[in-house]
Amino acid sequence: MRLVDLPSPNFGPRRGGIRPDMLVLHYTGMRSAEDALDRLCDEEAQVSAHYVIDEEGTVYRLVREDKRAWHAGRGCWRGETDINSRSIGIELVNPGHEFGYRPFPIAQMASLILLAGELVREYAIPPLHVLAHSDVAPDRKEDPGELFDWPSLAAAGIGAWPQPNGQDMASWSNAEIRELLGRVGYGTAWEKPDGTAWDGTAWDGAAAKTLLAFQRHWRPARLTGQPDTETVARLRALVREYCPANGTTVSA
Ligand SMILES: [Zn+2]
């Protein structure tokens, strides 16, 4: 793994100096690696990440891990809204949905697995704290997107990948799905498109965007924002395997 120091001026202190226990993955969503690195090091842009990995697998270190990089913006996970203070951010070079979304190359994934594996061990990052940007901000983000290979990460001990059983395929209610999404970590204070509180009758507005974010991560073959048997089965399995019975997820 080739490591290049490329310090960015865009960082601050972590709130209360806390030690990070989340990992947030992104794609750069720009035409080239050079464009992305320039922007993430541009003081005027006010954005950064701790690491950037290009498509050849070179890792650029922009911000020290004890500092708060500016990658997640407004978001929520398990009630935490200052995601930047709690997390380490890794940007993967990829043009993204706007400029030609494409698979993440093997060399890039190999470097990510090495880097993320070290971070997960050093900071004791629990499986449900290894997240997509779209998980913490489902209303406005879709990165790193449905082509990202989460199962390979999980096979390397990084993050969560559920294994549904037959019982997980049973029928469901919308209220159950909402409760399970909340237990996984998603924000579920949803509003309908007209601004009123979600009433559980239809998967619309923020509820659909949150279920879509779940599908991008754990059910990438079906990006509808609507429940189906396999989406629900994977959600149930995720909760069963990674959230203890007292209703809270594992925390470091
Ligand atoms: Zn992002």
UniProtKB/TrEMBL annotation:
It catalyses: Hydrolyzes the link between N-acetylmuramoyl residues and L-amino acid residues in certain cell-wall glycopeptides. GO terms for molecular function: N-acetylmuramoyl-L-alanine amidase activity. Keywords: Cell wall biogenesis/degradation, Hydrolase. InterPro entries: Amidase/PGRP_sf, Amidase_domain, NAMLAA_amidase_2, PGBD-like_sf, PGBDSf. Gene3D superfamilies: Peptidoglycan recognition protein-like, PGBD-like superfamily/PGBD. Belongs to the N-acetylmuramoyl-L-alanine amidase 2 family. This is N-acetylmuramoyl-L-alanine amidase. It comes from Aerophototrophica crusticola.
